[in-house]
Amino acid sequence: MTVEDLDEIFEIETASFRSPWKKKDFFFDLTENLFSHYLVLEKEGRLIGYCGVWIVLESAQITNIAILPEERGHNYGEFLFDKVLELSKREGATELTLEVRESNLVAQNLYEKLGLKIVGRREKYYKNDGEDALVMWVKL
């Protein structure tokens, strides 16, 4: 991902989440956060998805993953997630974690398919509606 991708990324972000990140959050990660890495997925020259990960020492934390709603159901999310797992391992991570909305069963099922397990809960994690997040983890 580059700064030039931010308009398309923001389109995907706002179409995907009830509490989307702001453009300035992505901009900060791309320009100042030395721990952040982002991969994008293109189809016919158009960005259709992205995934971000922060890698600190041996720990990788997925920050966000999203696919345009009209492009879902084609395993693009799984493909992108696999690429981020590969990147995390190459960068020396030995574990990966993420938070997912308690109500997002589709995402939970994907993460479980990829080997992640629920290891905890963050109460009222999502500020816009107070929904809990489930913490999922996997050893790489």
From TrEMBL:
CDD domains: NAT_SF. Residues 1-140 form the N-acetyltransferase domain. InterPro entries: AcTrfase_RimI/Ard1, Acyl_CoA_acyltransferase, GNAT_dom, YpeA/RimI_acetyltransf. GO terms for molecular function: protein-N-terminal-alanine acetyltransferase activity. It catalyses: N-terminal L-alanyl-[ribosomal protein bS18] + acetyl-CoA = N-terminal N(alpha)-acetyl-L-alanyl-[ribosomal protein bS18] + CoA + H(+). It is found in: Cytoplasm. Its EC number is 2.3.1.266. It comes from the Bacteria. SUPFAM superfamilies: Acyl-CoA N-acyltransferases (Nat) (SSF55729). It holds the Pfam family Acetyltransf_1. The keyword Heme does not apply. One of its GO terms (cellular component) is cytoplasm. Keywords: Acyltransferase, Cytoplasm, Transferase. The keyword Transmembrane does not apply. Belongs to the acetyltransferase family. RimI subfamily. Acetylates the N-terminal alanine of ribosomal protein bS18. This is [Ribosomal protein bS18]-alanine N-acetyltransferase. It comes from Halalkalibacillus sediminis.
